[in-house]
Amino acid sequence: MRNLRVVVSYDGTRYYGFQTQPGGNTIQDIIQDTIKKLSGEDVRIIGSGRTDAGVHARGQVFNFHTDAAIPVERWAIALNTRLPSDIVIRCVDEVEPEFHSSYSAKRKTYRYSIDTNKFPDVFERRYRFHHPTPLSVEEMRKGLAFLVGEHDFSSFTSRRSTKTSHVRTVYEARIDASDGKLDLFISGSGFLYNMVRVITGTLLLVGEGKLQAGQVQDILEAQDRSAAGPTAMAYGLNLWEVEYLA
Amino acid sequence: MRNLRVVVSYDGTRYYGFQTQPGGNTIQDIIQDTIKKLSGEDVRIIGSGRTDAGVHARGQVFNFHTDAAIPVERWAIALNTRLPSDIVIRCVDEVEPEFHSSYSAKRKTYRYSIDTNKFPDVFERRYRFHHPTPLSVEEMRKGLAFLVGEHDFSSFTSRRSTKTSHVRTVYEARIDASDGKLDLFISGSGFLYNMVRVITGTLLLVGEGKLQAGQVQDILEAQDRSAAGPTAMAYGLNLWEVEYLA
Predict the structure, then answer these.
(1) Which of B157-166, B203-212, B229-238 has the lowest mean pLDDT?
(2) Element (H, E) at A139
(3) How far apart are CA B94 and CA B98, in angstroms?
(4) Where does substrate bind (chains A, B) (predicted)?
(5) Cα torsion angle, B21, B26, B31, B34, sign
(6) At a CB cut-off of 8 Å and minimum separation 6, what does B81 contact?
């Protein structure tokens, strides 16, 4: 059996997240149904991780095993012609049998996008959270800096997290800002459930002046979800890139 | 009566163009209905020009006369809270009684966006025409240069044009290109029906090598629609900006 690694982009607006659910209408369900139509196989695709309902992906990665005779270079076009227009396969490669999209991932990057202009940019309205008052980007950057490195991120994950350890490493984080639009990029070894959205919700309070940048350090040390800010809206979040060892 | 000038952006995907039609579902119909709900007035808004079904606008301009007591700075937010999310008012200003969005316009700019990557960028799929093979941008730029200046653009307008003169002036035109994405910006005194889309359709043939750049000059001189290329798809077109004397 061949093991295929796929990079997929999607507009998550109308889906109940990546991972399969009883009601269907997830990215995984749609892709598995499409593979079935194409090759006749009942495959289970393995995502690099979940994305929540309404969250987008520029570069989600999944892999699956197949006996189909379709040449590797034909898979992307064959899937794209059968997928709805809000799911686009970017590339398909054959990888070693052991490759696993989740276990083999070395680094993930998320982007959270914010529009602080009085009225939203109509062309980005589904992808950029509208916060119609200004934010102090400098204070948000100071607050964000406390999160870089290896920390216990218990304050920044949903109480529903079932992970035994909340220790993760944030390798890099930055906020790009121009024309009232902010893009927070955060890269790490892995992310807890809702982690980027709780970080963003907390930094929004810093940007609004409701929290001091230095309090982000206190929140981190508290290791308590109730110390942090609210969970930012799903639609501003995008799984930007998943990286593997070459 | 006050005369208000409004800059509006819209995603034209689900509308039958800007101008009112018997069946409704045009940008003009939706905005007029919204003004009626807000002020109770039956107004007729005057657009800077039409946009076709499926064409977008970053900066369409219209004006209308009102007796409503609503302060000018309240109009934009009051309209936006009542409009669907794919129509966003950017600003409202009070102008002199003689101002007319169409007659007073000095310069218009359109953008036509193309994605030449093998698979489309899912987040721009409604705004960027997907042409899944490479184009020679240099040849397209050479062809485009022949159109700058005052010319009879009969070859580059729909046969359904009812204008007595097809002479227009293109002030500036350029193609920005990066990562396989092309943005054609074209500014002029005014544009004929389908003019930017026929220019784009012709330049696509040049980019594909099916026409020589120099043949754009011959097409212009022919003053005959059948000499030019096809009309490019509506969804790549965006009315970018309308300018007036200060």
Answers:
(1) B157-166
(2) helix A137-145
(3) 12
(4) 110
(5) positive
(6) none
Q: What is the pLDDT of residues B14-41, one digit of tens each?
A: 999 999 998 889 999 999 999 999 999 9
**DSSP string for residues in A68-134:** ----HHHHHHHHHTTS-TTEEEEEEEEE-TT--TTTTEEEEEEEEEEE-SSS--GGGTTTSEE--S-
Question: Which residues, in sequence order, are bridge partners of residue A176?
Answer: A183
Residue A125 with chain B: CB contacts under 8 Å: 11, 85-86, 88
Q: Which of B52, B93, B218, B224 is catalytic?
A: B52
Looking at the predicted structure, is the pLDDT value of residue A9 above 80?
Answer: yes
A122 touches chain B (CB under 8 A): yes
Q: Say yes or no: B90 contacts chain A, CB-CB below 8 A.
A: yes
Q: Which of B58, B75, B122 to mutate to test the interface with A (most CBs of A within 10 A)?
A: B122
The span from the first CA to the last CA of chain A, in angstroms, equals: 22
Tell me the domains of chain A and their CATH numbers: 2-95 (3.30.70.580), 106-244 (3.30.70.660)
Instruction: Note whether A8 and A32 are within 8 A (CB).
Output: no
Q: Please tell me the distance in Å from B52's CA to the nearest CA on chain A.
A: 18
Reference B157, options B166, B165, B148, B149; nearest CA is: B166
A9 touches chain B (CB under 8 A): yes
Q: What is the distance between the alpha carbons of residues B174 and B211, in angstroms, rounded to a whole number? A: 19
Q: Which phi and psi angles does A18 have, rounded to 5°?
A: -75, -50
- Percentage with pLDDT > 90 across chain B: 95
Between CA A3 and CA A92 the distance in angstroms is: 10
> Residue B71: what pLDDT?
94
Q: Residue B122: which of A88, A119, A120 has the nearest Cβ?
A: A88
| Region label for A223, one of left (φ > 0), alpha (ψ between -120 and 50) or beta (otherwise) | left
pLDDT single digits (tens) A202-244: 999 999 999 999 999 999 999 999 999 999 999 999 999 999 9
A52 counts as catalytic: yes
Query: Are B123 and A89 a contacting pair at CB < 8 A?
Result: no
3-state helix, strand, coil in chain A (%, to 5): 25, 30, 40
Give the contacts of A203 (CB within 8 A, at least 6 positions apart).
A140, A143, A144, A184, A216, A229
In a mutational test of the A interface, the residue from B15, B119, B121, B127 whose CB has the highest number of chain A CBs within 10 Å is: B119
- CA-nearest of B201, B197, B225, B245 to B17 is B197
Count of other CB atoms within 10 angstroms of residue B67: 10
